[in-house]
Amino acid sequence: MAFRRPELEKDNPIAPQPYIGPRRRLAMARAAASEELSEEGDMRDTLQIMTKAA
Q1: Biggest alpha carbon distance in the chain?
Q2: What does the pLDDT read at residue 15?
Q3: Can you spell out the DSSP letters for 22-48?
Q4: H or E segment and range at residue 51
Q5: What is the DSSP letter of 52?
Q6: 2-34 pLDDT, tens per residue?
Q7: How far apart are CA 28 and CA 18, in angstroms?
Q8: What's the rounded Cα separation, in Å, for the pair 24 and 46?
Q9: Which residues 6+ apart lie within 8 Å of 10 measured at CB?
Q10: Radius of gyration of the chain (CA)
Q11: What is the pLDDT at residue 31?
């Protein structure tokens, strides 16, 4: 069941944003942080390969 949230519709009534609770917001932040760490590892590996090649 979808509840209407006028405080979210005031800026853009055509495409209202769904409410995201604190648990989901924290889970999304943790997921983004873990992806960022894996990107750093990939970058480190790439730089080491390029250094060895040079």
Answers
A1: 60
A2: 63
A3: HHHHHHHHHHHHHHHHHHHHHHHHHHH
A4: helix 22-53
A5: H
A6: 666 666 556 666 666 678 889 999 998 888 887
A7: 15
A8: 33
A9: none
A10: 20
A11: 86
Buried b (16+ CB within 10 A) or exposed e, 13-29: eeebeeeeeeeeeeeee
Q: What are the extents of the domains in the chain?
A: 21-54
pLDDT in tens, 34-49: 776 666 678 888 889 9
Name the residue type at position 30: R
CA-to-CA distance for 21 and 7, rounded, in angstroms? Answer: 15
Size of the chain in residues: 54
Which two three-digit tokens encode residue 29? 């932040």
Its pTM stands at: 0.38
C-alpha dist (Å) from residue 34 to 20, 38, 45: 20, 6, 17
